[in-house]
Amino acid sequence: MLKKTLLFLLLAVWSFKPNAQSIQSVGVITDNFNQFTTDNLGNVYTIRNHELKKFRPDGSLWLLFSNISLGNISFVDATNPLKILLFYKDFSRIQFLDNMLSERSPVIQLQQLGYDQTVATCTSYDNGFWIFDQLNFELVRFNQDLIQTQNVKNLNQILGYEFTPTFLTEHNNYLFMNIPNKGILVFDIYGTYIKTIPLPDLIDFQVYNDLIYYLKEGKPSVYNMKTLQTSVLDFPESLLSYRIEKESICTTSSGQKNTIFLWKKR
Asked: Of 42, 79, 21, which is closest to residue 262 (Cα–Cα)?
């Protein structure tokens, strides 16, 4: 029954592949993890405490990275599979890894750069990265040489309210910031605020082309940024999370918390 309902989900949600008529199961990952993410090559990454595992698209374990001295991993951004960002929020640290999960460069100590209360970060174009510092409501972009290229201070005054972002992601020259009690704030690559997408109370989301994928009460939902329309899919299983890439999709359900189901376009 679960396999049939997942099949229904894939056929319905693959809205960026309108000609997709069928999918096939390519693997299952059973692991003890807190969260997971994917890259555009179909690889899957699971995170638990200080440990990061990388699985191939067929679900087989490939690589492992762990550095207990850095603390627990708060967030992983694998948007660029050749430069994977690990964020250690408790100690304001960032570590970049290559595609073999080897350290690309020394650990970035954000406190040494003058940012003591970084609460969110993500990768950016040309090997850069964004951070949001809660102390001064400051949005900052660094290039690969740790030189600031954009700096927007006092965003609370610009927006007219105080907030704490839980998630950042950059896609197609736009930066998306999740503010649970407001929605998704959209900025251009210079840090200029553009608009707020009215999708409040989100824990996580994924941007793919003109679509935003997210969960609403356990149901996979899609927001179209061009038409401003939202679709909530009628899926009988309550999902914990799902990720969509070019040719694949990964899902977890509340019934099987330690299992990631892997699917691919036939």
From this structure: 42
Torsion of CA 203, 10, 52, 144, to 10 degrees: -70
Q: Which residue has the tokens 């997971």?
A: 36
Please, which residues have CB within 8 angstroms of residue 218's CB and are 6 or more apart in sequence?
A: 238, 239, 240, 254
Q: Which amino acid is at 12?
A: A
What is the DSSP annotation of 207-254?
EETTEEEEEETTEEEEEETTT--EEE---SSPEEEEEE-SSEEEEEET
Residue 148's closest CA among 128, 126, 123?
A: 128
Q: In whole angstroms, how far apart are CA 99 and each of 80, 155, 190, 232, 243?
A: 9, 35, 28, 35, 19
Cβ atoms within 10 Å, residue 196: 15
- Alpha carbons 122 and 170: distance in angstroms, whole number: 7
**Alpha helices in 63-221, H assignment, sequence order:** 155-159
The DSSP secondary-structure symbol of 160 reads T
Instruction: Give 156's DSSP letter.
Output: H
The tens digit of pLDDT for each residue in 165-190 reads 999 999 999 999 999 999 999 999 99
Q: Is the pTM of this model over 0.85?
A: yes
In whole angstroms, give the CA distance from residue 226 to residue 106: 41
Distance CA 168, CA 188 (A): 13
**49-96 per-position pLDDT tens digit:** 999 999 999 999 999 999 999 999 999 999 999 999 999 999 999 999
